[in-house]
From TrEMBL:
This is Protein arginine methyltransferase NDUFAF7. Pfam families: Methyltransf_28 (PF02636). It is found in: Mitochondrion. It catalyses: L-arginyl-[protein] + 2 S-adenosyl-L-methionine = N(omega),N(omega)'-dimethyl-L-arginyl-[protein] + 2 S-adenosyl-L-homocysteine + 2 H(+). Its main location: mitochondrion. InterPro entries: NDUFAF7, NDUFAF7_sf, SAM-dependent_MTases_sf. Arginine methyltransferase involved in the assembly or stability of mitochondrial NADH:ubiquinone oxidoreductase complex (complex I). Acts by mediating symmetric dimethylation of 'Arg-118' of NDUFS2 after it assembles into the complex I, stabilizing the early intermediate complex. One of its GO terms (cellular component) is mitochondrion. GO terms for molecular function: protein-arginine omega-N symmetric methyltransferase activity.
Length: 418
């Protein structure tokens, strides 16, 4: 099964693992007191020695959770077409970078590069390069194998680019730990199930005002963690709760905010677009923090480092953090986005081209996983950052009648077949 959408409930899996991360955290909590949920999540996921993504990063069927690109090649193909379509709408610049944040096993980029290869005649005069932002050494190895067949060079002298290679289709690929290290330039950014893995702060409304939820050691049970509330306001309660907030429980992911600010500044300055796909809401949900192990819900405080921890993306927060530097589109439901991108036609072609029953069944099954509102169709969303001039002519105010209409942005508008 895919990672369930929030609120799905269910029995969490019991503790396990070798306990190294738990012992490390327990020592830290005993020495210096409770930590924010964000700090706990960062340790559990990306601690350089013991973090879940650092050591394990279980994306895929044999891992802890499965994602859309792992379910069907069609998903990545349609995203590849989205980038080509935007590239064309923006006047076919002769160079662009494809930048993926948190590429997992590299499957999505692999499917996109296949589309770029199939459309080589369209892209023939364009200089394309791929830039992957990945903190996990384990996953970057898997990506290198998937995309280059293992033909990569570690780059110990160059601190910013830690690995380089050439894709099987001949496109240069570079690996970075941080989006800030990716060179500036006209770029298409992609973040699929990336923002949900970044650390969140959690806040609870109480009679005494907003309090931050913290993680502490349980005094009754050795080496067991528990949630507590901060006794007074913390700097985060001051900074992250909107004055007009009506919910009683709020999650905020400042790291996602900083990254969106960077993407928006880059797109404003150098052009391009960003496509974000994730489960999430538009500033309405409350407690969505959950863990996954072996495709089952897992208690977030149990055996840290052995399970994926995740929270829904708040798209209203991302929109606010773009600070008007770019236009934003969405969030739009995955099933609507993929339908607008022509998934039904693509499925028909693949069905016609496959003669054996097993392949046809697999195609129909994966279509259902991606599109069914009860599965991934409704809870996953697409959201885009685009330069303002992509949606409104810059001189529209002065001469509204003189401009030809701008082409609609694919995926966010209904597909019209001419
Ligand atoms: N996009 C992939 C993988 C999603 S899992 C897919 O949809 O299948 C999240 C990915 O983000 C993993 O590759 C993980 O190692 C990476 N990641 C998590 N935190 C990160 C951070 N702070 N910076 C860069 N990558 C990160």
């Amino acid at each position: 099964a895919a990672r369930l959408c929030s609120g799905a409930g269910g029995q969490a899996e019991a503790a396990g693992g070798d306990g190294a991360m738990l012992r490390h955290l327990a020592r830290k909590l005993r020495a210096s007191g409770p930590v924010t949920v964000a700090e706990y999540m960062r340790e559990a996921l990306t601690n350089p020695g013991q973090g879940y993504y650092t050591r394990r990063g279980g994306v895929g069927e044999s891992g802890d959770f499965i994602t859309s690109p792992e379910i069907s090649q069609v998903f990545g193909e349609l995203i590849g077409i989205w980038f080509i379509s935007e590239w064309m709408a923006m006047g076919k610049p002769n160079i662009f970078q494809l930048v993926e944040l948190g590429p997992g096993r590299g499957t999505l980029t692999e499917d996109i590069l296949r589309v770029f290869k199939q459309l080589a005649s369209v892209l023939s005069k364009c200089d394309v390069s791929v830039h992957l932002v990945e903190v996990s050494p384990k996953l970057s190895e898997i990506q290198a194998m998937m995309l280059t067949g293992g033909k990569v060079q570690p780059n110990p002298e160059e601190e910013l680019v830690y690995m380089k290679g050439i894709s099987k289709t001949g496109i240069p690929i570079s690996w970075y730990r941080d989006i800030q290290d990716v060179p500036p330039g006209y770029s298409f950014y992609l973040a699929h199930e990336f923002f949900d893995a970044l650390p969140i702060h959690k806040f609870q409304r109480t009679e005494k005002g907003w309090r931050e939820v913290l993680v502490d050691i349980d005094p009754e049970v050795p080496d067991q963690l528990r949630f507590v509330l901060s006794p007074s306001r913390t700097p985060a309660t001051q900074n992250f709760i909107q004055p007009e907030e009506t919910r009683d429980h709020v999650e905020v992911c400042p790291e996602a905010g900083v990254i969106v600010q960077r993407l928006a500044s880059r797109i404003e300055k150098d052009g391009g677009a960003a496509l974000v796909a994730d489960y999430g809401h538009d500033g309405t949900k409350t407690d969505t923090f959950r863990g996954f192990r072996n495709h089952k819900l897992h208690d977030v405080l149990s055996a840290p480092g052995t399970a994926d921890l995740t929270a829904d993306v708040d798209f209203s927060y991302l929109r606010r953090m773009a600070q008007g530097k770019t236009a934003t589109l969405g969030p739009i439901k995955q099933r609507e986005f993929l339908k607008n991108m022509g998934i039904d036609l693509r499925l028909q072609v693949l069905l016609q081209n496959s003669s054996d029953t097993a392949t046809r069944e697999q195609l129909l099954h994966s279509y259902d996983m991606l599109m069914n509102p009860e599965k991934m169709g409704d809870c996953f969303n697409f959201f885009a950052l685009l330069p303002h001039h992509r949606l409104v002519h810059p001189d529209k105010k002065d001469k509204p009648e003189s401009n030809s209409p701008l082409p609609p942005v694919a995926g966010f508008n209904e597909l019209l077949l001419k």
